[in-house]
Design goal:
The protein has about 325 residues and is α/β, with parallel strands linked by helices. The chain has twelve helices and twelve strands.
Length: about 325
């Protein structure tokens, strides 16, 4: 699938600007959401019943809840990164051990950040936030790193894989806002120019090696150590304390709803196994098959932002 997505980052009169093609700016929802059948009214009734019977509902969300906000995912059929390109996400060990890998990552992230950070919640995020506010949602666990649930007002929330809006020093552990690092990038690279074609998940874009080589990366302002986004890269593991915390929330819940996740990654799938051990009813809303379809009492293939607002949480 060919997509005409272009970004240009340049310095002009001391200000940094990102120019995006009109298709990218206004048509990205269609680009990154896989096709799905029309909403089945009977399925809506079944999900309504599932939610109405739940008193301590735990919801787990994945990348499929954010594709409708214009953020691509990895695994969606025909439109995910794996289907569109032969590129693969960065590995934790490579990032930690190799300075050139960090340089390439941060150059790409620098170009992609203005757009990534500007994404807004869609009706699915707002629906889940309202469920929490009305006392229906007991806890929300997201595998996403885009902060869209936070932007929508969710508070009873665990970001399982961290958040791109925070930066972590690998040496001293100091945390800083990602926006502050963007300003440091701009100050270090006042004449650097890059053009990218193609969006990837998690604020990444595609650049050539020639573009990357002259990009300068600042160290930690506190200790001089290397900086990393406060997220779990592929090949890394989720903090054990966070895992234990989510296991406790699952055991306290009386039902579990999966929204927009294929559950292919074990870090999320393990909580489905815990729910199964506790004999909790499991419902799954995701376009396409998931790793846990055989464990669910209800499976729906619809857009998250199309279906969730139809459900009355009271």
């Amino acid at each position: 699938m060919k997509m005409n997505v272009g970004l240009t980052l340049r310095a002009a009169k001391g200000c940094w600007r990102v120019n995006l093609s009109q298709q990218c700016a206004h048509g990205s929802i269609g680009l990154f959401v896989p096709p799905s059948p029309p909403v089945d009214p009977e399925k809506v009734k079944e999900l309504q019943r599932f939610v109405s019977l739940s008193k301590r509902l735990l919801v787990m969300t994945g990348a499929g809840v954010s594709t409708e906000s214009g953020i691509p995912d990895y695994r969606s059929e025909k439109v995910g990164l794996y289907a569109r390109t032969d590129r693969r996400p960065i590995q934790h060990r490579d990032f930690v051990q190799r300075a050139p890998v960090r340089q390439r990552y941060w150059a790409r992230n620098f170009v992609g950040w203005p757009r990534f950070s500007s994404h807004q919640p869609n009706p699915a995020h707002w629906a889940l936030s309202s469920w929490e506010r009305l006392g229906k949602l007991y806890w929300l666990v997201t595998q996403n790193v885009d902060a869209l649930h936070t932007k929508a007002g969710s508070q009873r929330l665990t970001e399982l894989h961290g958040c791109m809006h925070r930066v972590l020093c690998l040496a001293c552990g100091e945390q800083t806002p990602r926006g502050v690092l963007q300003e440091r990038f701009e100050a270090l690279n006042p004449t650097w120019r890059a053009e990218a074609h193609g969006l990837a998940p998690d604020g990444d874009v595609f650049l050539t090696e020639e573009q990357v080589q002259s990009f300068r990366v600042p160290p930690c302002a506190r200790c001089g150590g290397p900086l990393k986004p406060d997220v779990v890269f592929f090949g890394d593991t989720v903090n054990p304390n966070k895992v234990d915390f989510v296991h406790r929330r699952v055991k306290e819940a009386d039902s579990l709803l999966v929204v927009g996740s294929s559950l292919q990654v074990y870090s999320g799938y393990r909580f489905i196994l815990t729910a199964r051990e506790k004999k909790l009813p499991i419902a799954i809303l995701n376009i396409g098959p998931t790793r846990s379809d055989h464990l669910a009492c209800l499976k729906l293939d619809s857009r998250c932002g199309e279906l969730l607002p139809l459900i009355d949480p009271q």
